[in-house]
Every structure is written in C-alpha cells, then in structure tokens.
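Sample intake sheet
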Amino acid sequence: MKEIHNFTIIDRQQRGEHYFSLVLKHGGHMQPIAPGQFVEVLIEDEPRVMLRRPISVHDVDPEAGTLSLLIQIVGNGTRRLSLLQVGDHLNLVYPLGHGFTTDLPAGSRALLVGGGAGIAPLLHLAKELKAKDVQCTILLGGRTASLIPVCDEFLPYGTLCLTTDDGSLGHKGLVVSHPAFAESYDMVYTCGPTPMMKAVARSAAERGLRCEVSLENMMACGVGACLCCVTDTDQGHRCVCKDGPVFDISTLKKWYQC
C-alpha cells in the first residue's frame, strides 16, 4: 500500500565527498518496505526542481519505524537534500516498485554486486538474505575509493569484496574481474551504472546463473502514469518504476547484449 508521509530526519551523516545518508522516522505505522523498493522524495525550496526524485531505500528498521537513504550528490535536487539537517522533515511517496527476490532456500549462495549509488539498496537486501540463512558475497566497485561509501556497514552480512578502477581500494579492475565473481552462486543481484550491470548480467547468463538487475531508467512519477521509464520485456513494454525497478534478466529483451 502506497503512502505519502512527512518523515522526520533523526540522523544525517556525510559519507565522504560525494555521498550523505539520512535516517528518517515515520512517527506512526510505517508501511513494509521490501529490498529494492524506492521512494519518491519531494524537493522543497528549490525552484529548479519541479519533480520528485526517486531514491533507493538503503536500510529499514521496522521496529523503530525508520528508513535510511544513501544519496549521491549529482544535481540540484540531491544538492538541496544534502542541506537538510536533523529535525527537518522530508515528504516521501513510498513504498514504490517491485523489489528483489529474497525467497531463497537456507544455505543458498548469493552474489550482490553494486557500483556507485547502486550500492544503496544492497544493504537492506543483504540483511534480509542473512536473516534467511543465505550466504552472501558482497562485491562493491567504483572508479576510485571515494566513490565506494559505507563499506563497513556490509561486514556483518557476508563476505565483503571491493574493486576500484585505479586500485586505490581492494582489487584493481572492474567488478567482473574480481576472483569472487568467478565462483558459483544460486542468485546474482546487481545495481549500479548500466554498463556495469550489463557486464554482470552478460557473465551470469553465459554461466547459467540466475540474475536480477535494478534498472536506473529516468523515472518521473514513480507510479507508472507518465510512461517515461518503459523498458522492453518478453511481456511487452513495462514501466521500470511500477513493474521494476528489479527485473530478472531472462525477461529483458536483449538488454544485456547491447
């Protein structure tokens, strides 16, 4: 069930030069949020931003009634959000979209691959998989060390592997070149820049591994009304905001072959 609600910011942390995180408290009964779902954030007091901004949910604490957002500063909207402080309010439409598949049998092995801002939804996913006794390998990559935030948050939930293009952190090279990527898994999940996700999906397909991707198409409304985020699937055009953002690669028509 979708809801529009004013959340209160109870914590704000700068995560290096390019990222910041917000912990938001509902104050009432918060709707359940599945890993991979997102929110649409109202950007107030910024005349250059007319539409809400879609942002992945980084973490959820149902008992405390809080959710966390990990946000990369990339434009006027996110720059305005970066100025918010504890005690301010943030209006969200949530929970939106279709999330990751998490009903894996206990003892399964999962690979979670994230890059850049695509790291954000993987923490909530890793926590849920661990609670179901799924063994997680978490592979995070970026061009350089400053573009891989919050690594330590993943340590309790699986084996953490890091890659950077310039070798400033972890393995030098792309995520698909990391030794952990060559192992066998029951499921591969990935979120991040499209070229990275396509490389991950292509390799998974070649090895016969099931793989889900969280697409980053431009989304305006978040509810499938504006049709600006459609992608081609084996069931026709589907809205990434409503039918995704998570899709099994087997349903995406030649997506990772482009």
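Comment: The mean pLDDT is 94. The two ends are 35 Å apart (CA to CA).
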